[in-house]
Write a structure and sequence with these properties.
The structure holds two protein chains of two kinds. Chain A is of the alpha/beta class. Chain A is built from six helices and seven strands; from the N terminus they run H-H-E-E-E-H-E-H-E-H-E-E-H. Chain A has a seven-stranded mixed sheet with strand order 2-1-5-4-3-6-7. Classes of the chains: A alpha/beta, B mainly alpha.
């Protein structure tokens, strides 16, 4: 009886250690998924991570797949973010300027109150499509580290150019911004 | 008698008052997490945390209950805003699993300790200590010398 109890104890202890070891191996082997931003920075070919989110500018949902074939500027923002206010007019002007060439600016409002986001859109006259991601479901897959961040997507759905971390600014990163738009439009020059 | 009745009435009023007391903003701020910085709202001065605190005060002033406010914030930001997982549905596992592991661990340690103590007892019964013959002879000689 005593030997049996001891063996049961040993089996439980070994099973516990094996389970913890298994978790560690799984974590190291499979849970190291990088966001699209990291892959893009390494020069890897990355497709824009898909999303399907409720729209803030109108009723319904918007999926990234529905925009396939169109060059995109995808901007992650929030109404409580200071630099997002600075860049809002630049993004709206960009949308108006390149709209005829098919370019779509897509705003992804992250971790925000819906009403605050709508107020922000009214205040800055935003007319491009904006989706709501209050839960932050896009953050991990896109590799968002702060707000705002801006990505460029070409007609095939591939990320191009450089990710812009921080506000799109005329002095600081206008060249990167213009180059991203040109690559998204398919202009290699 | 009148005094006793008045005291009972006072205690009853106090108990009823405690049971129906409206939650304070501080209570809710310690139970909700800032979605950007990951700390509870009372520990955060992030812009979104300040907005959430303002929202809580406005909703409380409008008469919303604690559960209503939490549900509204979960709808906006997801269940991650709750400092503690809900005690229902799948989230109940977050409470039960650690408790189960603790109980299983205690039972396991108890069983092992019980097994060890039984084995030591059996070993003590089975194997009487035999004296070295030379030592036994010396003890006998010493005893004889002591008695004589």
């Amino acid at each position: 009886m005593t030997g049996k109890v001891q063996r049961v104890g040993q089996v439980i202890a070994i099973a516990g250690v094996a389970a913890l070891l298994g978790l560690l191996i799984w974590k190291v082997a499979f849970d190291n998924e990088q966001g699209a931003a990291d892959k893009l920075a390494k020069g890897e070919l990355v497709h824009a991570p898909p999303f399907s989110l409720d729209r803030l500018d109108r009723e319904g949902t918007l999926t990234l797949a529905a925009l396939r074939g169109k060059p995109l500027v995808v901007n992650f923002w929030a109404s409580w973010c200071g630099p997002c206010k600075d860049e809002a007019p630049v993004l709206q002007q960009t949308y108006e300027r390149y709209r005829k060439q098919g370019l779509v600016v897509v705003g992804v409002d992250v971790k925000d109150f819906r009403e605050d986001a709508r107020r922000f859109m009214r205040r800055y006259g935003i007319t491009y499509p904006v989706v709501y991601d209050g839960k932050g479901s896009t953050i991990g897959r896109w590799g968002i580290q702060g707000y705002p961040e801006t990505f460029f997507v070409d007609r095939t759905g591939k990320l191009v150019g450089e990710r812009i971390a921080g506000a799109v600014d005329i002095e600081r990163n206008r060249e990167t911004f213009e180059r991203g738009i040109a690559l998204a439009l398919g202009d290699q020059s | 008698m009148t005094r006793a009745l008045a005291l009972c009435a006072l205690v009853a009023a106090l108990v009823a008052g405690t049971a129906t007391a409206a939650p304070s903003p501080a209570d809710l701020e310690s139970e909700l997490v800032c979605p950007v910085c990951g700390t509870t709202l009372d520990q955060s001065d992030a812009s979104i945390a300040l907005k959430m605190k303002r929202y809580i005060r406005q909703r409380l002033a409008a008469g919303a209950s604690e559960q209503q406010i939490k549900a509204e914030l979960v709808d906006q930001f997801g269940p991650g805003v709750l400092a503690e997982p809900p005690k229902s549905g799948f989230d109940l596992l977050a409470w039960l699993v650690p408790l189960g592991v603790l109980v299983a661990g205690a039972v396991g340690v108890g069983l092992v300790a019980w097994g060890w103590s039984r084995r030591r007892g059996e070993e003590a019964d089975d194997e009487p200590v035999a004296l070295d013959p030379e030592l036994e002879r010396r003890v006998d000689a010493e005893l004889q010398r002591f008695e004589s």
